Amino acid sequence: MEKQRDKTVKMAIPSKGICDVNELLRQIFWREPEMVRHAREFLDYVKEWGRTESPYRVEEWKNYCIRRGITQSQYHNMLKRLRMSGMIEKVYNKNKGTHEIHISRKFSDIVFSMFRVWENYTNN
């Protein structure tokens, strides 16, 4: 039986509030701050494509890397961190027979659940 790996992303906890998405991404990519810009551009790209009839397809990764000037390794590392944090999700579209990447609300749900745990702890 294969041991299931813990699928979490390590984040830095800021000592002050976070004002924008770039600061939020800095907490996720704290070991690779140069990836913050790439992650933000990718999120913007996926978000924009999500508003169309043809969302971003997984197989488009090579073209994306060439256009943005990032390596395959950087792309997959960025994708992994964004997926594990709950900011994006990969969804299979049966009608098109392809996987698509979409912006996800899972990150919000995770943060809200942490908030509730802390609120319950401090109020009891």
Describe the protein in words.
- The protein is globular.
- The termini are far apart.
- Strands 1-2 form a two-stranded antiparallel sheet.
- The longest helix is centred in the last third of the chain and has 18 residues, at 106-123.
- The chain has helices spanning 21-28, 35-50, 61-68, 72-85, 106-123; strands at 88-93, 98-103.
- With 124 residues, it is mainly alpha-helical.
- It contains 5 helices and 2 strands, in the order H-H-H-H-E-E-H.
- Strand 1 (88-93) and strand 2 (98-103) form a beta hairpin.
User: Count of helical segments?
Assistant: 5
Global Rg: 16 Å
> Could you say which overall geometry the principal axes of the C-alpha atoms support?
globular
In whole angstroms, how far apart are the ends? 41 Å
Residue stretches low in confidence (pLDDT < 50, at least 5 long) are none
Strand content of the residues, in percent?
5-15%
Structural class: mainly alpha
Trace the largest sheet across and list its strands: 1-2
